[in-house]
């Protein structure tokens, strides 16, 4: 049984077909990348997976269970969690407060703050997540004053705080200065093996460093899938990206 799969997934906006009959499998523990030129439909596909958009046709299954009609928050509680290409953080909170909110919601403790619960499970988990993602030294700093690389790490940490079974990373290194990118790459590489990861990314260096398998989306449909070596050698993929470069 795969971690996440789609069958005949489609999304139409009037006469525009944004996602076209996509059948896709993310295996348990996978390190999988989704790539494609601008306008390929990657964002629409992710929005269908996470319930932001309802499909026009097809199904989405998480661990074999049909989640096609579930709301986004219900999918998160079942273990399907995403990050966003543009940060969706509370900029006036600290990483401590942000992580405490995420862990507290998952544990059913609502907005109980870290400092008021001392050494309990919530506090220990917040500390462990902060250490894992290199945030322990900035826990009490307002998020909007953090370097952008730290903000991206915080967003991944918040997603991780929901204990995902499947983690969708939408261009996690987008906009991060070169000097801070290694921290992002290291955090992604160190994610637990039992978390299945789908990376949506334009940076081919990051894709080929990370992925064991790559799917290529073009005009809303899957063009091909394979190992990084197979994708790099595929003339159809080269033609798609060469065409984008020529017209970009």
Output the keywords.
four-stranded antiparallel β-sheet; Rossmann fold; 248 residues; alpha/beta
The average pLDDT value, as a whole number, equals 91
Q: What fraction of residues sit in β-strands?
A: 15-25%
Top-tier CATH class of one domain:
Alpha Beta
Low-pLDDT stretches:
none
N-to-C span: 40 Å
Which series of helices and strands comes N to C?
EEEHEEHEHHHEHEHEEHH
Q: Provide the spatial order of strands within the biggest beta sheet.
A: 6-7-8-3-9-10
Give the helix/strand class.
alpha/beta
The CATH homologous superfamily of one domain is termed P-loop containing nucleotide triphosphate hydrolases
Q: With helices defined by DSSP (H or I, 4 residues minimum), what is the helix count?
A: 9
> What general outline do the C-alpha atoms trace?
globular
**Assembly type of the shown chains?**
single chain
Radius of gyration: 19 Å
Name the CATH architecture of one domain: 3-Layer(aba) Sandwich
- CATH names the topology of one domain as Rossmann fold
Annotation, overall tally of beta strands: 10
Give an overview of the whole structure.
- Strand 7, helix 6 and strand 8 form a beta-alpha-beta unit.
- This protein has a domain at 4-88 and 162-247: P-loop containing nucleotide triphosphate hydrolases (Rossmann fold, 3-Layer(aba) Sandwich), CATH 3.40.50.
- A 6-stranded mixed β-sheet has the order 6-7-8-3-9-10, with helices on both faces.
- Helix 5 runs parallel beside helix 6 (178-189).
- It is an alpha/beta fold.
- It starts with a strand and ends with a helix.
- The model has no long low-confidence stretch (mean pLDDT 91).
- The chain is globular, with a radius of gyration of 19 Å.
- It contains 9 helices and 10 strands.
């Amino acid at each position: 049984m795969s971690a996440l799969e789609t069958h005949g997934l489609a999304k139409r906006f009037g006469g525009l077909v944004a996602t076209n009959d996509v059948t896709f499998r993310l295996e348990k523990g996978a390190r999988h990348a989704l790539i494609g030129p601008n306008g390929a439909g990657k964002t629409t596909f992710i929005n269908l997976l996470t319930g932001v958009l309802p499909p026009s046709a097809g199904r989405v299954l998480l661990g074999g269970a049909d989640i096609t009609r579930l709301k986004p928050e219900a999918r998160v509680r079942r273990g399907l969690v995403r990050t966003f290409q543009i940060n969706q953080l509370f900029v006036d909170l600290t990483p401590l407060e942000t992580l405490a909110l995420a862990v507290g919601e998952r544990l059913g403790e609502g907005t109980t703050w870290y400092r008021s619960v001392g050494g309990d499970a919530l506090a220990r988990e917040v500390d462990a997540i902060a250490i894992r993602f290199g945030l322990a030294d900035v826990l009490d700093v307002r998020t909007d004053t953090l370097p952008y690389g730290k903000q991206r790490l915080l967003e991944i940490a918040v997603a991780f705080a929901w204990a995902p079974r499947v983690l969708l990373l939408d261009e996690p290194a987008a906009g991060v200065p070169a000097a801070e990118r290694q921290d992002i790459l290291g955090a992604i590489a160190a994610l637990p093996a039992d978390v299945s990861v789908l990376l949506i990314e334009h940076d081919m260096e990051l894709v080929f460093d990370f992925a064991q398998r790559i799917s290529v989306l073009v005009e809303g449909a899957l063009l091909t899938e394979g190992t990084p070596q197979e994708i790099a050698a595929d003339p159809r993929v080269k033609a798609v990206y060469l065409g984008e470069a020529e017209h970009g």
